[in-house]
């Protein structure tokens, strides 16, 4: 039998379902109102309304005690009206900035590289990307999410369009120090409309690398670090780092340039062209490319910025990313006119960088000139096992896929006993089973014979020459080494570099470890 509505005394109560963590959506507020004494006012006949059921389910998930109280529909409306008359207001940008700052601070504490805010038709989901995996951290109302996105973009961003437009794709950045935790140098923002709402992704740019310049601490081998040291000591030539988004390219660039400035006691002029500036590099002149409307306009502005940098008497130019033909041509021109150039590019492997440059329209004879292109680097990031809770691979082999076990046995050989898997987590790793990420990479110091083979179309010959005569190591080789050392789980390694193979096999990726937490590298 339906409960009979009784008179409701709203005196000395506050409405908590209009704002804050327990805020109800606009549709939900038509049928219900949550008071601070725990009463949940529900309009008569709406107990099974989907909006009511959804809101109650959220209260249950949040373990917020409440008591359903049937009332007339007019009472629900009156509860909200009286609260407004009492001087209460909906959350504005000022109040929502507090929420946004705490969200970013929480992500920093979790050492997240990104924050994903997904606004759906009826709710908002918030995720943190920690160690390259998305973790759902909370759910809010759609209205809360819309206000949070508008505040992040319109009230906190320092580089953006004039207004936040949920139905358009927009980019922005937060750089004001008073809006960010001490651990962050900045935040990059990207938005896009979705089929049922909108999404915003915030890339957190950490500034805790400080004066660190040791490439081996990032995970590079001593031989790879020596090659990179040789490349940075050359007065001319372009060195290109490839890898997918979030593979640590910017962190590697930061350390290479910081060490170059340190090694020369600051006597060289290092200038960067970035869109936007990602990480601080002490001693470098870092120039941002202000957002232009549209990709075509941005391409023109970026190329002009590179040309301008060449007129500022640089010794070394760092170009944040080669993204199109215009920036590729500008970078090549800088390298050909007596400058050292460091940049990044999206390519599947170190050797595939050449293919990518040709695909962007650069001539083969120029991109296979060892005096112009001096270094090709490709890198990925793999998780480092927590030394306190990792478990031996051999003790769990029967629980694993037989094909994986076979591959690990082939590459590990007699050292199979050193291979480890991620454990269940502990206090040291905050239950993750991993303590950060480390680089697996391949580094090619080009020479005339290597490029001659590529010009002749003999890619297999170039790879063989690199591996056998230039002491090359693919990303798979590097990953295998770390698996055998017991610092990387073979399952995690294969998710990043593909199947672990024998050393003489080239993976096609082109490509004593310390667990460095890259964050948003």
SSE arrangement:
Elements: E1 32-34, E2 39-43, H1 50-61, E3 67-71, H2 73-85, H3 93-109, E4 114-119, E5 123-130, E6 133-141, H4 142-156, E7 170-174, E8 184-194, E9 197-206, H5 222-233, E10 237-242, H6 249-263, E11 270-274, E12 285-288, H7 295-310, E13 316-319, H8 325-336, E14 340-345, H9 352-359, H10 364-367, E15 373-385, E16 391-392, H11 402-412, E17 420-421, E18 434-445, H12 448-455, H13 459-469, H14 475-484, H15 490-497
Parallel strand pairs: 2-3, 10-14, 10-15, 11-12, 11-13, 13-14
Antiparallel strand pairs: 1-2, 4-5, 4-9, 5-6, 7-8, 8-9, 15-18, 16-17
Question: Could you provide a short overview of the structure?
Answer:
Keywords: ATP-binding, Nucleotide-binding. The chain has 521 residues and is of the alpha/beta class.
3D architecture notes:
- The chain is of the alpha/beta class and 521 residues long.
- Among the domains are: 10-71, no CATH class; 96-206, Beta-Lactamase, CATH 3.30.450; 215-379 and 454-468, 3-Layer(aba) Sandwich (Rossmann fold), CATH 3.40.50.
- The chain contains 15 helices and 18 strands.
- The strands form four sheets. Strands 12-11-13-14-10-15-18 form a seven-stranded mixed beta sheet, with helices on both faces.
- Helix 1 links the parallel strand 2 (39-43) and strand 3 (67-71).
- Helix 3 crosses helix 4 (142-156) and helix 12 runs antiparallel to helix 13.
- The protein is globular, with a radius of gyration of 28 Å.
- Keywords: ATP-binding, Nucleotide-binding.
- GO terms for molecular function: ATP binding; ATP hydrolysis activity.
- Belongs to the GSP E family.
- This is Secretion system protein E.
């Amino acid at each position: 039998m339906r409960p009979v509505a009784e008179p409701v005394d709203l005196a000395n109560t506050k409405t908590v379902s209009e704002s804050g963590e327990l805020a109800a959506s606009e549709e939900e507020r038509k049928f219900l109102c949550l008071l601070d004494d725990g009463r949940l006012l529900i309009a008569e006949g709406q107990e099974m309304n989907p909006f009511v059921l959804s809101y109650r389910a959220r209260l249950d998930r949040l373990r917020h005690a409440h008591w359903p109280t049937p009332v007339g529909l007019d009472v629900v409306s009156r509860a909200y009206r009286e609260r407004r008359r009492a001087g209460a207001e909906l959350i504005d940008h000022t109040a929502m900035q507090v929420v946004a700052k705490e969200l970013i601070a929480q992500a920093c504490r979790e050492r997240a590289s990104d924050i994903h805010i997904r606004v759906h038709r009826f709710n908002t989901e918030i995720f943190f990307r920690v160690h390259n995996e998305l973790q759902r951290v909370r759910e809010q109302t759609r209205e809360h999410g819309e206000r949070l996105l508008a505040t992040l973009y319109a009230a906190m961003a320092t580089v953006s369009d004039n207004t936040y437009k949920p139905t358009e794709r927009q980019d922005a950045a937060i750089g004001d120090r008073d809006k960010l935790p001490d651990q962050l140098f900045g935040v990059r923002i990207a938005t896009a409309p979705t089929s049922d709402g909108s999404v915003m992704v915030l890339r957190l740019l950490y500034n805790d690398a400080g004066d660190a310049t040791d490439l081996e601490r990032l995970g590079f081998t001593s031989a790879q670090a020596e090659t990179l040291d040789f490349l940075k000591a050359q007065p001319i030539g372009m060195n290109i780092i490839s890898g997918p988004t979030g593979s640590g390219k910017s962190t590697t660039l930061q350390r290479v340039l910081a060490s170059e400035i340190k090694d020369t006691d600051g006597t060289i002029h290092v200038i960067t062209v970035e869109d936007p500036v990602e990480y601080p590099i002490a001693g470098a002149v870092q120039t941002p490319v202000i957002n232009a409307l549209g990709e075509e306009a941005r391409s023109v502005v970026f190329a002009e910025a590179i040309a301008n940098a060449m007129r500022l008497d640089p010794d070394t130019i760092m170009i944040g990313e080669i993204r199109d033909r215009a920036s590729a041509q500008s970078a090549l021109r800088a390298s050909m006119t007596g400058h050292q150039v460091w940049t990044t590019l999206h390519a599947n492997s170190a050797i595939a960088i050449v293919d990518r440059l040709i695909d962007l329209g650069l001539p083969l004879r120029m991109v296979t000139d060892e005096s112009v292109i001096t270094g090709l680097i490709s890198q990925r990031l793999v998780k480092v096992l927590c030394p306190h809770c990792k478990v031996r691979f051999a003790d769990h082999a029967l629980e694993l896929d037989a094909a994986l076990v076979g591959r690990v046995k082939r590459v590990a050989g007699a050292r199979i006993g050193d291979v480890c898997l991620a454990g269940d987590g502990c206090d040291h790793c905050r239950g993750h089973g991993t303590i950060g990420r480390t680089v697996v990479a391949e580094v090619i110091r080009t020479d005339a014979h290597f490029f001659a083979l590529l010009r002749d179309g003999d890619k297999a010959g170039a790879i063989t020459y690199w591996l056998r005569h230039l002491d090359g190591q693919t990303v798979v080789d590097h990953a295998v080494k770390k698996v055998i050392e017991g610092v990387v789980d073979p399952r995690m390694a294969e998710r990043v570099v593909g199947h672990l193979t024998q050393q003489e096999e080239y993976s096609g990726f082109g490509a004593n470890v310390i667990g460095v937490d890259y964050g948003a590298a």
